[in-house]
Design a protein that fits this description.
Number of helices: 28
CATH architecture of the largest domain: 3-Layer(aba) Sandwich
Structural class: alpha/beta
Number of domains: 4
Distance between the termini: 51 Å
Radius of gyration: 30 Å
Number of strands: 26
CATH superfamily of the largest domain: Glycogen Phosphorylase B
Strand order of the largest sheet: 9-8-7-10-12-14
Strand content: 15-25%
CATH class of the largest domain: Alpha Beta
CATH topology of the largest domain: Rossmann fold
C-alpha cells in the first residue's frame, strides 16, 4: 500500500467506511505499506510463502488462496461488498471467482493498449482481450466520467455496469496537514511535481520543460523511486536546479508552500494531486491529457491546461504564472469530499433501482430523458412505464433497463392481460424510487402497491386527496414560465435527488443499425457530399403547422445549395408529396414509421428546421443545430434545450398584431389556423438558415 493516488484514495475511503460504523477488511496482495492504516481496519496480507512471480500459474495460485481467505471471512461475517483496485488486484479477484465483486478502474486502459501496440501489437491485442474478460459483466467504478466513456467506447463494456465516482479527498484532513510544522520546507522559492516514477507521469517531459525555463526557482520532485529519478536529472545536467524527495505520510506542507504545482502526464485516470493543490491554495497547471484534469479544471481555468508532450508549452505557462502573484484556483472541491463519495459507494452497494412513469406523448418522453440523465448513477436500474408510441424513445436512452407500455386501443380482455403482465414484471423489482411525471391514476396505485422508499409526484389540483397521499413527496405544480425540462427536474429536486442549477441535456442514441440504414438511405438518394437540411414543418395539431406555400418557397429559395430531407409522420406523407410536386428543387421525402430511423437521419443532418413538435425535442436530444419555428406555443417552455439553436417567431417588433403570442390557443379565435405562422415570410427563414449554416 504505497503512497500513489489510488492507494491514498483507498485509504481515505476505508477510514470513512470504518468511522461510519462499517466493518472493513483490507486484503493486501503485496506486502508494501507506506501509508498509516487505521487500527479498526482488519489487515490481511496474502502471499505464497515467498516473493511470488506474476505469471500464469502464480496468479491462479494467489487467486485460489484469496478465495479461501474470503470464504473463511464470509462464514464469520457476511460482506455487503467486495471491492478490488488496481489492475493486478482486479485480475486476481476475477480469477478467484468471488461472486458479486466491484472493481475500481483508475487508469485509461485504452491508452495503455495504444502505447503497447506501437512496439508489441500482438501483446496489445492479448492485453485488450484480457481486460475485456476481466471487466465484462461486472460492476465497475471508474474514477472519472472520461474513464467510464473509455471503457464503453474502446473496450465495448456496457454502460449499465459502470459507475463514475471521483476519488475521495478528506478536505479537513488535507487542510490541517498542510499547516503542519514538523515537515521540512525549503528556504528557497520552488515549484513542485508530485508523481510516482512511471512512464505515464512523464518525469522526462517535466525535466525537459524545466531545462528551458528561465527562473531562479528550484524544482522539487516528490516520488517513490528517488534513485532512478536522480539519475535522470543528472543525465540532463539539472542537478543544481532540482531537489528530489521521497514520498512521505504528509507532503501537503510542501505543496502548500510551493509557488506552483505542475502535472505533466500523458494520461490520467483522475489527478488527485490537482485537488490537493487546490485545497493547499497552490496554483497548478496540467497537461491536457485524457479525462481526469479536464473534468477537474472548470471552464474559467481552461488556460491552465497545456498540450501534452510539449515541453515548450509547459515552460511558457510556468514562466507566465511565476510572473504573477500566487493565485490559487477556486474549484468546487466539495464534490470530491469524502462524505459525498462515501455516499455514492454506499448507493452502489445498496443497488438501488427506480421506476419512472410518463403516460404522455412522444415529445414529453424525450424531455423526460433529461431527468433520466440527471438521476444519480447510484440508481443502477431505471425502468419506465409509457405509452406505446414512446417505446422507441426510451430504447434510445442508455440508462433504461425495462420499458413497460400501457395497452392502449386494445380490447378489454387483451388490455387486462397486458396490465397483469406489466404488474408481474414490476413485482419482480424492488424499487427504491418511483416517480410519477404525469397525473395518471396508474402511478398512484403502483406507488401504494410497491411502497418504495421514495415516491414522488407533482401537485395537481385536478386530482383528489387519495391520489395526492399516494406519494410521500409532492413537488410544486409546474410553472408556466419555465422550461418543461426544469419542471420535470423539480420532482427530483423536491426529494434532494438533483441539486445543480440547470437540467441536463436530453439524450437519444440511435442504434448503429439505424445509422447504417440512414447512411444507405442518404447515399441512395444521391447526397453527393452536400450538406443536409432536415425540415419538419408538420404537426398533428394543425395550428402549429407551417403553410405549404411557405415550405415550398423556402426550399426553392435555397437554390440547391443543400440537400433537403422533408420529414413528417405517416399521416403527413400526402401533404409532403404535395410539397414535393410544387418544388422546383426536389427534396427527399422521409416516410419512416420508425423513430429510430428518423433519429438516425437527423443525426447525419447538418441542420434541423422544425416547428414546435416532437422533432424539435429529438433534435435537442441528438445535440443537433436547430432552427425552431414557433407560433402560438411558448418557446420558453417548449424551446430547444441545451443545443446550438435559434428560435424564430413573429413578435410585436414585426407587427403589433403579434403581441398576443404566445397565446397558447388552437389557432386565432379557435380557427386551427395561426396568423403568426401563416404570415412568416419565406426569406426570413432562409436568412436564418443561411446564418446557422455559415457557423460551421
Amino acid at each position: 500500500m504505497n503512497a500513489g493516488g489510488a492507494q491514498k484514495a483507498t485509504n481515505d475511503l476505508m477510514s470513512a467506511f470504518s468511522r461510519n460504523g462499517h466493518h472493513v477488511t483490507l486484503i493486501l496482495l503485496e506486502n508494501e505499506i507506506t501509508l498509516p492504516i487505521e487500527k479498526d481496519i482488519n489487515l490481511i496480507r496474502v502471499q505464497l510463502g515467498r516473493p511470488y512471480l506474476k505469471g500464469w500459474i502464480s496468479k491462479r495460485l494467489l487467486a485460489k488462496k484469496l478465495y479461501q481467505i474470503w470464504l473463511d471471512l464470509e462464514k464469520k461475517n457476511r460482506f455487503d461488498a467486495v471491492i478490488s483496485r488496481l489492475t493486478f488486484a482486479n485480475e486476481i479477484v476475477y480469477l478467484s471467482k468471488i461472486p458479486e465483486t466491484i472493481s475500481i478502474i483508475d487508469n485509461t486502459l485504452s491508452e495503455e493498449i495504444k502505447k503497447l501496440s506501437k512496439t508489441k501489437p500482438i501483446k496489445a491485442i492479448r492485453k485488450k482481450n484480457r481486460y475485456k474478460n476481466i471487466y465484462s459483466k461486472r460492476k465497475l467504478i471508474a474514477v472519472s466520467h472520461g474513464i467510464k466513456n473509455d471503457l464503453i467506447n474502446n473496450l465495448g463494456l456496457k454502460a449499465e455496469d459502470i459507475y463514475a465516482i471521483y476519488n475521495p479527498i478528506d478536505i479537513d484532513k488535507v487542510r490541517k496537514l498542510s499547516k503542519a510544522n514538523e515537515v521540512w520546507i525549503p528556504d528557497y522559492k520552488y515549484i513542485i511535481h508530485v508523481a510516482r516514477f512511471i512512464g505515464q507521469k512523464r518525469h522526462d517531459l517535466m525535466l525537459d520543460a524545466w531545462a528551458l525555463t528561465r527562473t531562479s526557482h528550484k524544482l522539487v520532485l516528490l516520488t517513490d523511486d528517488v534513485h532512478r529519478l536522480k539519475r535522470m536529472i543528472s543525465e540532463k545536467n539539472l542537478t543544481s536546479r532540482c531537489k528530489v524527495i521521497q514520498f512521505t505520510d504528509n507532503h501537503f506542507p510542501l505543496v502548500a508552500n510551493a509557488e506552483l504545482l505542475v502535472l505533466t502526464s500523458d494520461f490520467e485516470g483522475f489527478g488527485l494531486v490537482l485537488i490537493e493543490a487546490a485545497l493547499c491554495k497552490t496554483p497548478f497547471i496540467s497537461t491536457d491529457c485524457n479525462h481526469g484534469p479536464r473534468e477537474i479544471i472548470e471552464g474559467k481555468y481552461q488556460d491552465h491546461l497545456v498540450k501534452i508532450n510539449d515541453a515548450n508549452a509547459i515552460k511558457n505557462k510556468i514562466e507566465s504564472l511565476l510572473k504573477k502573484t500566487k493565485n490559487p484556483l477556486d474549484l468546487d472541491v466539495q464534490k470530491y469530499a469524502l462524505e459525498n463519495i462515501l455516499e455514492q459507494y454506499l448507493d452502489i452497494i445498496k443497488n438501488k433501482s427506480a421506476l419512472f412513469i410518463k403516460t404522455k406523448n412522444i415529445g414529453d418522453s424525450i424531455i423526460l430523458t433529461s431527468a433520466i440523465s440527471a438521476l444519480s448513477d447510484s440508481y443502477q436500474h431505471i425502468d419506465v412505464i409509457c405509452m406505446p408510441g414512446s417505446k422507441e424513445i426510451f430504447e434510445m436512452h442508455p440508462r433504461i433497463r425495462n420499458i413497460f407500455t400501457i395497452p392502449r386501443g386494445r380490447k378489454f380482455t387483451e388490455k387486462w392481460k397486458c396490465y397483469f403482465y406489466i404488474l408481474r414484471q414490476i413485482h419482480k423489482n424492488r424499487y427504491k424510487l418511483i416517480i410519477q411525471f404525469s397525473s395518471d391514476w396508474r402511478g398512484a396505485l403502483i406507488s401504494r402497491w410497491k411502497n418504495a422508499k421514495i415516491s414522488i409526484a407533482g401537485k395537481n389540483h385536478k386530482r383528489g386527496a387519495y391520489w395526492q397521499r399516494s406519494f410521500n413527496v409532492l413537488a410544486s405544480e409546474a410553472k408556466l414560465n419555465r422550461h418543461a425540462a426544469e419542471s420535470d427536474l423539480d420532482l427530483l429536486r423536491s426529494a434532494n435527488l438533483f441539486d445543480t442549477k440547470i437540467a441536463p441535456p436530453y439524450l437519444q442514441v440511435p442504434p448503429k443499425k439505424s445509422l447504417d440504414e440512414a447512411n444507405l438511405f442518404l447515399k441512395t438518394n444521391s447526397i453527393n457530399n452536400k450538406k443536409i437540411i432536415f425540415i419538419h414543418a408538420q404537426s398533428r395539431w394543425s395550428f402549429k403547422r407551417l403553410n405549404i406555400e411557405i415550405i415550398v418557397r423556402v426550399i426553392n429559395l435555397l437554390k440547391n445549395k443543400y440537400k433537403i430531407v422533408l420529414s413528417g409522420s405517416t399521416e403527413d406523407y400526402e401533404m409532403n408529396k404535395k410539397i414535393y410536386e410544387l418544388c422546383h428543387i426536389k427534396p427527399i421525402i422521409l416516410n419512416s414509421k420508425s423513430i429510430r430511423f428518423t433519429a438516425a437521419v437527423m443525426k447525419l443532418s447538418d441542420l434541423i428546421v422544425t416547428v414546435d413538435s416532437m422533432t424539435l425535442h429529438l433534435a435537442s436530444a441528438l445535440n443537433k443545430k436547430t432552427l425552431a419555428i414557433f407560433g402560438p406555443t411558448s418557446e420558453i417552455v417548449w424551446g430547444p434545450w441545451r443545443t446550438e439553436s435559434k428560435v424564430f417567431a413573429l413578435t410585436e417588433a414585426d407587427d403589433i398584431s403579434y403581441s398576443c403570442r404566445p397565446c397558447l390557443s388552437d389557432g386565432c379565435g379557435g380557427s386551427k389556423i395561426s396568423a403568426c405562422l401563416e404570415n412568416i415570410r419565406p426569406n426570413q427563414l432562409v436568412d436564418e438558415i443561411t446564418k446557422l449554416m455559415k457557423k460551421d
